[in-house]
Every structure is written in structure tokens, then in C-alpha cells.
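A note from the maintainers: we've had questions about how concatenated examples are separated. There is no special marker in the raw files; a new sequence line simply starts the next protein. For clarity in this README we add a label.
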Amino acid sequence: MVSGYVLILAVLILGGFIATLGDRVGTRVGKARLSLFNLRPRQTATLVSIATGSVISASTLALLFGVSSQLRTGVFELSKIQADLANAEADLAQAQSTQESVETDLESATNERQRALARLQEINQSLNQAVVQQEATEGELRQTLGQLDAVSQQAAALRQSTDALRVQRDNLLAQQATIGKQIADRDRAIAKLDEEIADRDRAIAQREQRLASLEAEQDFLEQQVAVLQTQYQGLFRGNIALNRNQEILVGQGRAENREQAEEFVTGFLLEANRLVSRAIAPGALIDQQILLIGNREVEALIERLSTGEDYVVRLLSAANYVTGEPCVVQQGEPCVQVFIDATPNQQVYALGERLATVTLDPPPLGDRQLVERLNLLLAAAQFRARQDGVVSDTLQVADNRPETVLNFLETVQQSGQAVDLQAIAATDIFTVGPVQIHLAAVRDGRILFQTSGFNNPLDDSTDLLSE
């Protein structure tokens, strides 16, 4: 600031000095009437004045340029400075745009972090549920193993009893052959022995039938144990979302033409795709198709449904898949291999048909014993229904009220009689299911009471339903 004032003052003083000097030189030249370049004296004086002014201007500029570097820069490098300023403004605008983009990315990253935290909480909840399910599965496995041991012991005892009865039958047959050779007055004794043999044969046949039923029930319980062990191993190794041959979706389809069949199959596969994506990637939004199924299999299903017949369509998993399957969650591509089973929906059991029978031990009967025999009856009925072609695993006691079953068991316990518990079809049962049954207490081929229209009929035992 001070140097500027000094420079201005120096320029003013120098200009005044040079102007005075030029005026004197011009005056002397005019008085002397000098002539330069053959000019008149006045023109010569004018030329000297012009030269003096040029010297003043040149000295002023030289002084300014020599003293002020900023002035030199402003005069000779102004265009360059303006170009640099424009570039600087463009860089500033780009930097501001980059700053806004970075702020947008930062906000997006913050939102993504919040969503990741939410998914982490959902995964933690799913893990807790899996742990609870594992504990429940272990309890069911222990209970099933205990039931299996009890059934095995009963089967062994029945085999021993059957062998003893067979030996007795052989002995009686031998006695009958010997008695046949004796005199006619022993005919009545022989007839009596024949009746005893027939009774024992019937008893043996009943025990053999019971043994066959127990063996079938044992096979069913062994299958359940195998399934529970598989589930336990899956839960131990990781969260299994789908097991091999697991039923994903069941539907009942019937179409009059190919268009209706295609509409049913499309909706069926879309629903199955939604269920599988929700099982494998809970909480994630997967819009792509993840089911892997052959076009020939789909076309064959459409052709079968187009015939106008009623079919039960099931979609089953072809392998084991865990929660968070990478090819589903990360790529979202078809990798869950499935296959379709279509079975004609036909009548399997008619109303009133007997599905299974278990024999109660002679009274008194304890609560635990009654419940175990009831569970065995239900398991045997479910096993037979599955063996006969019913695809549904749902088994319901008619009217589906717990108090009905409890009242029935209480009546059986209060009756004080050795009866057979039977599972009887409550409706016509088809392939699609479900299996709805009545519970009946039977003695000597006569139904004493059952769950249908249950009204505690101990005082007046009647046949409520014929076999």
C-alpha cells in the first residue's frame, strides 16, 4: 500500500521535472530558431516537444515496469491470468460437483449400512428360531426313540407268544390225531378239542395280524426316526431350508383344455418359486426364477392336466438346500432343482372304513399308557394312508376339538373294559387328503362308543357306526 503511494509520488515528481525540462528545451529551441531535418523553427520546436513527451511517457512506463512486478504481470500476462482464472473456476465447479456426488454416495452408503443392520437382526432372529427348533427336534427324537424301543419290546414278546401258541397248536393237532384212532365214545372229547384248537387258531390269527400291524408301525417309526436324525444333522451342520424329497407345494388341478392347464401350472410354479425364495433367503426380495425344472416335465404335466381328469400335483425338492444358498442370494439364478409328481385324485377310503386298530392292555389303564396307545393308533393310520396313496400328511380327528379326544379317552378309562381302539374314516378320503377319522372303542366286533356325536354313552352302549 505504502509502496504504491511512493510510486505515484515519484511518477508525479519525475513527470513534473521532465515536463519542466522539456518546456525549457522547447523554449530555447524556439528562441534559438533552430531547424532540424530542414523544418521550420516552429515545427522543430513542436518536434522537440513531442520527443520530450515521448521521453516522459517512456520514462514513466520504464519506472512503473521496473518498480512494480504486478503491473508487468497485469499488462503482459493478463490474458494468461484470465485463462487460468477460467480454468480455476471450472475446476472449482467440478470439485463442487464431485463433492455433491461424494455426499450422495455417503448418504447411500449410510442407508445401505442401516439395511444391512436390519438384515443382520433378521438373521439373528432366524438363528434363534433355528436353535429353538433344534431343541424341539431333539426332544421329539428322544421321545420317538423311546416309543421305538417300547414297540420293539412288544413285538419281541408277541413273537415269543406266537411261537408258543404254534407249538401248542401242533401238540393239539397231534393229540387230535391220536384221539381219532380211539373208540367212538371219545368223539365228544375230540369235538371239544377241535373247538379249542379253532379258538386257539383264531387267537393265533389275531395275534399274527397284530404282529403284522406292529411291524408296519415299527417300520413307520423307524422312517420317522431316520427323518428326525436327518433333520437333526442338518440343524447341527447349518440351517437346512429344504430337505431332499421335501414337499414344497401341493395343489389340486383340473383343466378342460390346454389354456386352463397352462394357467394352473404357471400359477402353481410362481407360488412354489415364492415359497422357496422365502425359505432360502428370508427377508430378501428375489424377483427372478430360482426353480430349476425341465421344460419336458412342465409340458408333460400340462398335457396330463388337459385331459379333464382331477389330479393332485406335488412339487418336491431334488436335493438339500441351506438358508442363504449363494446361487440364489448372490446371483439370483435358477439353481434349486425340483421335480413334479402328478397323481390322479381318486377315492382311497370310503366313509366308515377301518384304517388301523390297536389293542389296549387289560385295565386298569394309566393316562400315559392311554396316550401312548392313541399315538400308536394315529401313527399306524397315517402310515397306512401314506402306503395306500394319500399324499397329504394331515391327519385329523373329526370335529378337531381337543376336548372330544380327552372325553373319549376318559370314557375308555372309566369303562374298565379291555377294548380295541380303531381309527375309522369319517368321510370319503381321496388322494389329495386330508385324512379325517373317528376314534372308536370296539369289543367283540361291536362299537361301544366313538368320537362322532360323543355323548358319554357308557350306560347305553350301541353301535354308532358299522365297520
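[label: protein 2]
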Amino acid sequence: MAKLLEYQGKEWLRKAGIPVPVGRAASSPEEAEQIAAELGKPVAVKAQVQAGGRGKSGAVKLVNTPAEAREAATSILGTVIKGYPVRKVLVEEKLDIAREYYVTIIVNSARNARCPMMMFSTEGGMDIESVPEDKIFRLLISPLFGLEVYDAVDMLVKAGIPNDQVTTFANLLVKLWNAYKKYDCFTLEINPLVMTADGQLVAADCKMEVDNSSVYRHPEMGIEIARDFPHEPTELDRIGWGIEKADTRGSGFVMSMGFDEKSPGYIGYHPIGGGSAMMGMDALNKVGLKPANYADTSGNPVASKVYRVAKVVLSQPNIDGYLLGGFMMANQEQWHHAHAVVKALREILPKKPGLPCVLLLCGNKEEESLAILREGLSNVEGATRVEIYGREHVTDTDFIGQRLLALVKEYQAEKRKQGGDQ
């Protein structure tokens, strides 16, 4: 899912009529100090990253003066939290908290539900994961009729919200549902939802994830990449998303995998299909090779899209090989892959002579596809380590892995020799 940072999600909550603390994001200690001075009151300085547990990791600091806000921002900016570097902090007013609650709307994919579900608890905050199940109340929401006020009231009464506060809570929950629907969210969470000492409900935090398939409907959100990454997007991730964004015919997914250009044994990895991809990963891991990236061209993409993916995968610097892993009997016409890979390799191999390439294609139009590969690569400059296989090795990951490893060892020895000769 496309995840927004806290300060971004809070801005959309504010526009939906849900109260949020006053403040804004800062990119430097000086800016944090300026914002705190403008607010003129104690503030919270909070790291802005796509990771939970900020409070426990010391990335949320409560301070009383602008100078302290500057000091807090200095200590937070540039740190790394669960693999994400902190580039911004949110500086916002410190709330006078009387009580904390938890509320979220997610998609319940259970067979007997398959609809949005609201979860509410009177015990919100950092330790929500340890709250007993009987303290979390769930409400299935009809995609057709939405969240009705009386349904929200019923859940709140069961949760123990006092009668004189039920209407205030119910109105906020309905606004939260309307925001969830309007912004095409997959997840919309407030933890904690704070009751202040003067009786106001305020969203003290916000986790907002927009459904990838709906990002195109919200250009106003400025979402750069409609994907969920376990790391900050790399240049390869941005290029890969550009392929998918420009052409939705079949999959053209490309994602980085922590490729270290200075370390040997990384392979440009081009699988076809998710299950097939896992088999190829096993083939690489068993022989001590590593995927430089993850790619997927399933779902019957056109040759032009497959070519763009193959070209991106092959263009990665200092890879020691390329694996086209069709570990499945695909019903898509494989000659689209064959034409695309031939074109990409004819352009790349003269620049990377001897690069090991193991190509496995199986399924519909297999014979024609293998013929295209063999003929198209027969007289290509630099194509000295290209091996082509079909259905006889469709599930033979040991064989494919060993063949690629043998070619990689030759290639690495050749590179070392050339380096020594120079």
C-alpha cells in the first residue's frame, strides 16, 4: 500500500473535519526551532518515517522551549529507524492528555466478511499490541451503506464510553469512515485518539495507507510510488514504478533487494510469477548467489513492457549474471518474453561481454519461444555464456542454480584475470 507520513495523514484528517494538533513538518533543527517559537507553547518533536515504535526508540521527544525543540530535532534528524533514515520531524503542540483511545479502519479479508472493519479500544497508546482481545471492539462496515451513526453508538456503548460522550465519539468515527472512503484508504488508524483535559477529541497520531490501485485518483496527495517497500525507495524502485505506472498491461514489477555493487555474486533476477519467483530465489540461495533485485513479468504483459523490465534488470552495474526464471508452465504466450529478452540482451551483452545468462521459458508457445531465443542470440557479440532451457527443467531449481553458478565462476575468474592483466 502507498503509505503517507504522519504529518501528511494528519493534514488529510484535518481536511475531513477531524481535529489534529497544530504544527507542521521541519527538515532542519533551525526550522523546528522556528515552528516551536511560532506555536509559543510546549511541543512534541516526532520523527517522520514509515515505521512504528518511534516512541519506544526515542524518536518522539516532548520539550518546553524552542531551543529544546532545536536540540530534539538535532538528535532525531539523520538517525535510522528500522532501516528508514529520518529526513523530517513533525513539530506540533503538546496535548494535555486526559485519556488515550485507539481506532482504526482496515480491510477484513476473512471469507465471511470481505469488507471494511472498524476496531476501537479505550486502551490506546504505545502498547496497543498487548491490549487484551476483549478490550478491542470490532464493527463490520457495509461497503454499500457505510458506517451509520447508530452502529457507531452501539459499539461505543459496548466499549464503555460514558453516555454524555457517546455522541462526540460517534460523530468523529463517522468522519473517520468518510475520510477512509473518500481517500480510498486500505488502512486508516489513529493511535492514540486523545481526550484532552478540556474534553476535546484530537488525533494525536495518524497511520494512513492508500490502496495502490486508487492512487491515480488522488494526484493531490503527491504520492511518488504506489507501492509498499520494506525500505526507502531506491532509484531502481522509482524506475520500476515508472514502467508499471506507464503501462498496466500485465505485471512489470521491479524492486531493489539491497544490492551491494561492491560485493560479488549478485544476479539480475527476472522471474515470471510469484510462485515461480520463490523457486528461483531458492535456486540462487542454494548455490550462494544473491538476487540484486526482484522483478515480475506475469499476467501476459506485452513484449515492450517485458523489454523495459529486462533492460532495467540487466543494466544494473556490476551484476555477475542474469536469470530469467520461468519456473512454471505459463499459459501466457511466452514468445513475447522471448522477443523482449532477445532485444534487451542484444543491446546489453556487447557492453557486458561474457555476462552469464540462464534463460528458462516454459508453457504456451514454448517451442516457438525457445527458437526465437536461440536464433536471436546465436550471433550476438558478448553472448558467450548464454544457456537456454525449457520444460525439461521447469521445476529443476538445483540444475538451474548449478548451471548459473558454473557460468558465474567462469565470468568472475575472467574479470579477475583482466584486472590483473591491466
